[in-house]
Amino acid sequence: MGKLYADIIIDISHEALDRVFSYKVPFSLREEIQIGQQVAVPFGRGNHERKGFVVGFSDKTDYEEDKVKEIIRIEPGGVTAESRMLNLAYWIREHYGSTMIQALRTVLPVQEKMNRKSSRWIELKIDPVHGPALLEEYFGRHYTAKARLLAALLDQNRISWDQASHQLKISKSTVDAMVREDVIRVVTEYYYRNPNQEMISREAPVPLNQEQQDLIDEFRQDLMREEHKVYLLHGVTGSGKTEVYLAAIEEVIKRGEQAIVLIPEIALTYQTVQRFTKRFGDRVSILNSRLSKGEKYDQWLRAKQGDVDVIIGPRSALFVPFPNLGLIVIDEEHESSYKSEQTPKYHARETAIQKASMEGASVILGSATPSVESYKNALEGRYCLWELTKRAQNAVLPRVYIEDLREELKAGNRSIFSRKLRQLMEDRLAKGEQMMLFLNRRGYAGFVSCRSCGHVMECPHCDVSMTYHREGMLKCHYCGYELPMPKTCPECGSPYIGTFGLGTQKVESAIYKEFPQARVLRMDMDTTRKKHSYEEILKAFSKGEADILVGTQMIVKGHDYANVTLVGILAADLSLHANDYRAGERTFQLLTQAAGRAGRGDKGGEVVIQTYSPEHYSIVAAAKQDYKEFYQQEIGYRSLMKYPPVWQMLVIFFSGRQEEEVRDLSQKAADILKRMEFLVIGPGEASLARMKDQYRRVIYIKDADYQNLIRAKDEIERWLEQQDEKRNILVNFDFNPMNS
Ligand code: ADP
Ligand code: ZN
Ligand code: ZN
Predict the structure, then answer these.
(1) Could you say which residues bind Zn(2+) 1 here (predicted)?
(2) Which of 118, 190, 185 is nearest to 158 (CA)?
(3) Which residues face 235 on adjacent strands?
(4) Counting Cβ atoms within 10 Å, is residue 436 exposed (0-12), middle (13-18) or buried (19+)?
(5) Whole-number Å distance between alpha carbons of 504 and 550
(6) What is the pLDDT of residues 5-64, one digit of tens each?
(7) Please, which pLDDT band fits residue 81 given cuts at 50, 70 and 90?
């Protein structure tokens, strides 16, 4: 694309974010001009000179040729934090599909215009030894107000503006006069809205073990050679990954650089954060969703001004503008919360890697169960694979039992607890040890299975579970293939075929029924709706206020419970048969992490996994805590079925009020993509076909090369520009979807 015209954002302030202006690029600047640069442009009726940032180029303009003004000059001063953010926004827009404004909103916080808390102080500027003489002079001339203020300052060194005006009755003009005389000065102190008030004393780090030390030595050497790599740190829960992050952060701080640490919101608990504050004191700042906008903005400013070295937060903390970024750590890098659910649907891992390469920083991705994508990248040499093989404090891995629910049914056990699990629960209640019962449910699980033989209804084309729909139909959520709901199991003929439902409340009441003496805490969306109750429930449990904690995936993160010696996974099938290609991966992750909760103290633990699919590799490998075995199987499936990360996938959503229009437009788009020779699935109805009166259709395309998918997106965007329907229909893109 040529550089005849430039898209320019005028200032990066709250209001201006809403528009991009078109300017001519003078011939003399065409070589030099770049995206992200700051330029001076004439603006508004009076053509006042304003600063702007270049966010894009084009060969034509939508405005009248002779009304388009010309860029005055490129501002010197290199690449500022803002222009780096703009570059990143531009990359996000290209990579994930969105408008520039949406991308900018993602990377720049909205400036909070709330009144900053501040205080003004009056201080003595002259040497106090000259004070008495001056005081004498003021009195002599009957400057009584000046004399009052000076006397107070000689006494107290500094006094607040409030005190001066209310108690001493000093007017502003008196203060101004004395400022002009260079006798006093006025200083304004701003308070950062800093939520991390608690003072924590620093603690010396634990000595690293050999494995950890080797990794840090390697990291240090890479830094010395200015090699900024992406490291994938794979180690079971408790193997000391966090200690490695802390040591690596120290290395970059020594170089005068800063670090961003991303932790999934749900794992951002007091315990985790405390480990960072103990190490880095008030040089750490925390961003989380409980902060007000103003507090968030202040953390952002502190980072920009270099007042902190480390920032910890969820996905959005990635966009903190450190002056000299040295490292980005992403803990639990496999977590789906790193993918944004709003347009632009960026992935924090990919974006972090891009940001790091733009700014010369390293990246450490850590997980006990790395994403299949990252592990593949590591095996193929794009990331550097770091492994921790032992638990740091030599805690033993738990013993795992896989219980086949079909056998339970055959034995006449109709309870939700298998015989093995019930026996172990009784044992723990008798011993006064704690247990966690875990329901690995994500959102809506509408799959259909046979309670006798465990058969699950799957799409013959896509190899994912079909979902039960209205009017007795089963449907594939990728390709739209439909089947009537069978009355008997096609495998074994049993009539016990149906949707699978189990909720935390049902589990809670089953416990009360079967173990009336047990004290139970339940954690799910209902019980954690209030602001702090997530932490409160976990705290109550760690204090021993209950025997059993029942919950969804929320309970597997964060806290260490020395007294938990039993973990029960009630229905591994709930996540195993979710209707997307990541179901096996997610199940392996959830089971491994849940199992990791058992026996973290010195007692050793046991884990019971209940399932109708005891032979499934995700379950077998999780029981053995064998990541490599899982990976080998999973990558085979992805490759055979052309799913990411072997192939790349792009989802295009169309939504609008008029069903006909949505159908029509999505069909045309699919035709264009087919002509471009993409592998196109759909358009079909989205899994929630109607949402808030919007009718939704979806197209999936697959290709071996991500760049080709970006091309497809660009082509569709360009084509949409020329369609009248674009006003009524919202189109958005999702690359390698995580949450559908
Ligand atoms: P992960 O992040 O992999 O779950 P952590 O870093 O939290 O592991 O380590 C688990 C536990 O082991 C923590 O209590 C931590 O303080 C301790 N630990 C980690 N490394 C060491 C070490 N080298 N020496 C002693 N204790 C360690
Ligand atoms: Zn059956
Ligand atoms: Zn299908």
Answers:
(1) 450, 453, 489, 492
(2) 185
(3) 388
(4) buried
(5) 7
(6) 998 887 655 444 556 788 999 988 888 887 777 888 998 888 888 888 887 888 887 778
(7) low
Torsion of CA 417, 419, 420, 423, to 10 degrees: 90
Rounded distance between C-alpha atoms, residue 330 and residue 233, angstroms = 10
Q: Model ipTM? A: 0.96
| Token representation of residue 454 | 């465990």
Residue 384 labeled ligand binder: no
Strand, helix or coil for residue 362: strand
Round to whole Å and give the CA distance between 518 and 521.
Answer: 10
Compute, in angstroms, the gap from residue 183 CA to the centroid of ligand 1: 57
Which burial class, exposed, middle or buried, applies to 65 when counting CB atoms under 10 A from its CB (0-12, 13-18, 19+)? Answer: exposed
* 368 CA closest ligand 1 atom index: 3
The structure tokens listed for 170 are 């000093």
Residue 707 CB burial class (10 angstroms; 0-12, 13-18, ≥19): exposed
Q: How far is the CA of 731 from the centre of ligand 2 (A)?
A: 41
* In the block, residue with structure tokens 């009539």: 495
User: CA-CA distances (angstroms) from residue 125 to 120, 149, 183, 334?
Assistant: 15, 13, 5, 57
Q: Spell 138-148 as b/e; 16+ CB within 10 A means b.
A: beeeebebbbb
Q: Any residues with CB less than 8 A from the CB of 407 and at least 6 apart, and which? A: none
Contact 401, 420 (CB under 8 A): yes
Scanning the structure block, which residue is given the tokens 């199940």? 587
**Which stretches of 32-99 are DSSP H helices?**
81-96
Phi, psi dihedral angles at 543 (to 5 degrees): -80, 0
Geometric angle at alpha carbon 738, from 733 and 740, rounded to 5°: 75
Its pTM surpasses 0.90:
no
Give the span between the Cα atoms of 467 and 464, in whole angstroms: 9
Task: Please name which of 272, 281, 213 lies closest in space to residue 248, comparing C-alpha atoms.
Answer: 213
Q: Which atom of ligand 1 is nearest to the CA of 237?
A: 4
Six token digits for residue 627: 């990541």
Task: State the distance between the two ends of the chain, measured CA to CA, in whole angstroms.
Answer: 35
Preceding amide of 314 cis, omega within 30: no
Helix H or strand E encompassing 326: strand 325-331
The amino acid present at 740, given as its one-letter code, is S
Question: Which atom, in ligand 1's list, is nearest to the CA of 331?
Answer: 2
- Strands 310-313 and 258-262, by their bridges, are parallel
Q: Are 262 and 338 in contact (CB under 8 A)?
A: yes
If you average pLDDT over residues 450-460, what whole number do you get?
Answer: 88
Compute the distance from residue 79 Cα to the ligand 3 centre, in Å: 48
Cα of 475 from ligand 3 centre, angstroms: 8
Strands (E), 35-117: 38-43, 48-58, 73-74
User: Where is average pLDDT lowest: 96-100, 123-127, 188-192, 572-576?
Assistant: 188-192
pLDDT tens profile 273-309: 888 989 998 899 888 777 777 777 778 878 888 889 9
For residue 375, with 0-12 CB atoms within 10 Å meaning exposed, 13-18 middle and 19 or more buried, which class applies? buried
CB 245 within 8 Å of CB 329: yes
- For helices 706-721 and 659-675, the axis angle rounded to 10 degrees is 130
ω before 484 within 30° of 0 (cis)?
A: no
Ligand 1 pocket list (CB less than 6 A): 206, 208-209, 212, 235, 237-243, 392-393
Give the number of whichever ligand sits closest to the CA of residue 394: 1
How far is it, in rounded angstroms, from Cα 173 to Cα 415?
A: 83
- Please confirm whether the linkage preceding 737 is cis (ω < 30° from 0): no
Q: Which residue in 276, 285, 218 sits closest to 250, CA to CA?
A: 276
